[in-house]
Amino acid sequence: MSDEDREEADALPARADPEPGAGRRDFLGLAITGTAAALGVMSAYPVTRFLQPHEEPTPRSATVGEAMKFPRGSSKTVLIGEQPVLVIRLDDGTFRAYVALCTHLQCVVSFSAQRKQIECPCHRGVYSLEGQNVSGPPPRPLTVVDVSVINGVVTVSEV
Amino acid sequence: VTVTEPAKESWFSDRVGSVAFKQRLGARKISTTNPILYIGMAIAFLFLLQVLSGILLLLPYRPDPASAHESMVSIVGRVPYGSLVRGVHVWSSQLFVFGVMLQLTVILLTRRFKPPRELVWLSGLGLLLLAVGMAFTGVILPWNQNAYMQARVSSQIVGEAPLFGPWLERMLRGGPEVGTWSLHHAYGFHTGALPALTTLVLAMHVVLVQRKPAQGTRDESTVPLYPDFLVRVGAVLTGVLILVVSLATFTSVPLGTAVDFTAPMPARVLPPWYFLFMHQLFRSAPPHLLGVDSAKFIMGALSFLGVGAIALPFLDRRGSRITFYLGLVLVALWALLTVYAVL
Fold this sequence. Notes:
The complex is a heterodimer.
Chain A: H1 3-11, H2 22-50, E1 61-66, E2 74-80, E3 83-89, E4 95-99, E5 110-112, E6 117-119, E7 126-127, E8 133-135, E9 145-150, E10 153-158
Antiparallel strand pairs in A: 1-10, 2-3, 3-4, 5-6, 6-7, 7-8, 9-10
Chain B: H1 11-16, H2 18-27, E1 29-31, H3 35-57, H4 68-77, H5 82-109, H6 118-140, H7 145-160, H8 165-173, H9 180-211, E2 222-224, H10 225-250, H11 276-284, E3 288-289, E4 292-293, H12 294-315, H13 321-342
Antiparallel strand pairs in B: 1-2, 3-4
Helix pairs in contact in B: 3-5, 3-10, 4-5, 5-6, 5-10, 6-9, 6-12, 7-8, 11-13
């Protein structure tokens, strides 16, 4: 603090002030709460970012197993990364694969061999074997996953 | 007021001031006919039970997807009194949620939210959110097939909410998908942030209630806070304790089977009782409502209702009869949807 400032500061209470030092007290109060608020706001950004971990690279495909050991009219659920995928072998021997998550609220859907359809256990959503939403609350068809059979081994990979 | 002799205090009371404290409490007069005081005390007691049993459960529980379910089986089967401690934890949390709901309903129908009790009402709403949050994250921790489904659906439902929905969804999941990190996030919220916040909000609520106590019925009888009223509270809390311990002893909460993605999922998945009304809404709605996905529409409507609940003491400043009938309709609707969901 320079001498001029000090003189000015000392001179302040001498003025005709109804409440001596009130202006300075208000200013300090504002400065302290303002700084605290600014620090709070500044810490909000790193905290919100911290709570949202960035995506780790996940595998895009998964091996289902040998086609020989996959009976017709049955299904298997496998994981691509952490995403469940429903693989169905139809009666004619061809494969279908879908992301096994209901397009309504993401319950895991399963294949019903008796009723020849894909069902969601949470809110009674029903899909055809082609993945089309047939009845119940699902608003969209299931997401299609590629199936390939190479040297008798079934592999699913995201489109 | 008689002036008592300052001497003759016990060694303990001389140091902590317990005699003076009791005298101060004795000078306060409390209504004996006000139900919300007893419900409030029961709620605080149930939270204490949850914290105590929860601290015990921290030791044998493993928050790891590979061994979480196994550790729960071990708690119930092998740890001495593990089944009792888990039962007390589960049932005190269910009654805690129920108690907060009951309290808010009573306050709503008797219009005790009106000014100057706006902040009492708001902290009560905050407690409901925290109670449901704690109970629901607790459902995830056994990491069985049901927990996996609940984690999927609930995080997706949160994601359908307007504004902060997608951000909250990713925070709850710990990534873009429900997986191994989701269990750890549920565990973190369940044992860290949520009970800490609940302690804070509960304490704030108590302070706010002290400043702006509810007006009781007209011809109310009052008694001193100490010892008369606290004896009554003690009787109520003993009743609550007997209820919790009985439920923990004579009922069993199934643990299900550990998460296995390749195993068939359960044929019917139902959320906990406090979310059954939402389950019924989601199940019976058509795929689209007014051009948007019905799930988004329902979450938008419920968010609107939530904003309405927050704004209530500022909109209805006199506690009108309309609020009473509206509240009655909402409670009836909630009960109807809940019953319909389990049928």
